[in-house]
Amino acid sequence: MRTMRLCRALEKLGADFAARNWHYLDVAPQDRWARAWAWPGLPEEEIIVCVHKGTSIFETFHRQDFFFLNYAYKGSYDAISYQYDNFITIGEGECYVGQPYTGYALNKDGDEEFIIIGVLMKKDLFFRSFLPVLSQDPALFKFFLEPRINQFSDEFLHLRFEKNSPLRILLEMMVQEYAAKKADTQAILKPLAMAVLMHIARQYRVERPEEKPKRLSEQIVRYMGEHTETVTLKEISAHFAYHPNYISGLLRREQGKTFSQILLTLRMERAVLLLEGTNLSIEEIADMLGYSNSSNFYKAFREYFHCSPREYIGLRH
Questions:
Q1: Are 61 and 80 within 8 A, CB to CB?
Q2: Are strands 156-160 and 62-64 parallel, antiparallel or unpaired?
Q3: Partners of residue 79 on adjacent β-strands
Q4: Running DSSP on this structure, what letter comes out for residue 148?
Q5: Residue 153: which pLDDT band, with cuts at 50, 70 and 90?
Q6: pLDDT higher than threshold 70 for residue 220
Q7: Pairing of strands 35-37, 62-64
Q8: CA–CA–CA angle 214, 218, 222 (5° rounding)
């Protein structure tokens, strides 16, 4: 029964794919190398599940106004990213994760059928609901934010999953839910999408492990970077099994800064990325960074940059 239902859902969404309203946004003159896709779903939808099922696909090289992931459910397909010579093959069980602002196109021609499951997420939903959970990994945090402000940032994630990965099961659940949409479908899709992104974050850490710093002070700074919104000196002391006074002295000796100064720097680095890369309010950014209220964030920001958050953005643009 489950297999039949899944097959029908894949067929339905596959048939719906070509009927989607794939229209283009105007882009800045310097971006003539690409067109930009607007959100193709209904205004009230924040998550869309797409299926491409066939033997060929040729997309116009484009950007998109949303976050997305494409999973090779059956067979393989090719992808061209920001630079035309960046051509990769996504094999069965592999996933391509892309951000807004960077160029992309699907390209495949052959005799063998392939199935791609795509999950599209509106930027506001991603920034407000998903990014705070994913932000513990500093590298992943920057991956999702930097393309808007740095054209030389990473363009995509290409990750490989086991055949029976939970990711595959979660995507099958999303396909079936979206194919038989009900009033509460969006509410059901959001936690499923969060689970999908958590598995992507886990696989990202598996495939791209960072070498553990040898010096204790560097390990502490990395830990602080992974927990900027909640970390305290007491927590670090318990985690590393050293007295708080020893931790404080070690950071001053080897890093040249106090615990508070290091934490402030880490938070301000994230604040800049959030201010430039998202449409989040000051209150939301303050909360993401661990400040109890926006006033404390304003005060810390002004002391660090000698201007307010809005003045900072104005000076940069």
A1: yes
A2: unpaired
A3: 88, 106
A4: G
A5: very low
A6: yes
A7: parallel
A8: 115
pLDDT tens digits for range 172-199: 999 999 999 999 999 999 999 999 999 9
Which amino acid does the sequence have at 27?
V
What is the rounded CA–CA span in Å between residue 213 and residue 220? 9
Of 127, 125, 131, 132, nearest to 229 by C-alpha is 132
Phi-psi bin for 14: left (phi > 0), alpha (psi -120 to 50), beta? Answer: alpha
Three-class secondary structure assignment of 224-274: HHHCCCCCCHHHHHHHHCCCHHHHHHHHHHHHCCCHHHHHHHHHHHHHHHH
- C-alpha to C-alpha distances, 244 to 238, 239, 240, 261, 266, nearest whole angstrom: 9, 11, 10, 15, 20
Q: Are 134 and 144 in contact (CB under 8 A)?
A: yes
- Burial string for 228-239 (b: 16+ CB within 10 Å, else e) reads beebebeebbee
Distance CA 22, CA 40 (A): 6
CA distances from 246 to 219, 220, 259 (A): 14, 12, 11
Helix ranges, the chain (H) = 2-17, 123-125, 131-134, 138-145, 166-179, 185-207, 216-226, 233-240, 244-255, 259-277, 282-288, 294-305, 309-316
Cβ neighbours of residue 173 closer than 8 Å, sequence gap 6 or more = 192
C-alpha dist (Å) from residue 295 to 269, 278, 289: 18, 20, 13
DSSP 22: -
The full length of the chain comes to: 317
Six token digits for residue 12: 């339905």
